[in-house]
């Protein structure tokens, strides 16, 4: 529940967020993750990662990086043409 959003008139205050870990920093097996908010550790938890999960996550991350690079290159080429 986020009272600041209710006061601002943004929805009913029931909002959250998602985040994705940097899979390159994780290892197969047990990993300890720390969630930081405003430079304060607010949660520490363990994440078990299988080899299959790691492969899928890394493949998705590579595809995202390719998409971002392609978009950036397209913007640069468009700017050069103008």
Question: Could you characterize what this model shows?
Answer:
The structure is a single chain. The protein has two helices and two strands, in the order αββα. The chain is flat, with a radius of gyration of 19 Å. It is an alpha+beta fold. It has helices spanning 3-8, 51-81, and strands at residues 29-37, 40-49. It has a domain at 25-81. Strands 1-2 form a two-stranded antiparallel sheet. The model has no long low-confidence stretch (mean pLDDT 87). The protein starts with a helix and ends with a helix.
Main attributes of the structure:
82 residues, alpha+beta, two-stranded antiparallel ribbon, 2 strands, 23% strand
Share of residues in helices: 40-55%
Q: How confident overall, as mean pLDDT?
A: 87
CA(first)-CA(last) distance? 47 Å
The radius of gyration computed from the alpha-carbon positions, rounded to a whole number of angstroms, is 19 Å
What string, H for helix and E for strand, traces the elements in order?
HEEH
DSSP strand tally: 2
Structural classification: alpha+beta
The helix count comes to: 2
**Gross morphology:** flat
In spatial order, strands of the major sheet run: 1-2
Strand content: 15-25%
Which spans of ≥5 residues are poorly predicted at pLDDT below 50?
none
Largest sheet: 2 strands, antiparallel
């Amino acid at each position: 529940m986020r009272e600041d959003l209710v006061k601002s008139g943004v929805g009913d205050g029931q909002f959250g967020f998602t985040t994705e870990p940097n899979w390159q920093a994780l290892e197969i097996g047990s990993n300890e993750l720390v969630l930081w908010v405003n430079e304060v550790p607010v949660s520490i938890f363990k994440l078990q990662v299988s080899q299959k999960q790691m492969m899928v996550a890394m493949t998705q991350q590579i595809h995202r990086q390719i998409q971002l690079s392609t978009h950036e290159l397209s913007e640069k080429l468009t700017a050069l043409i103008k």
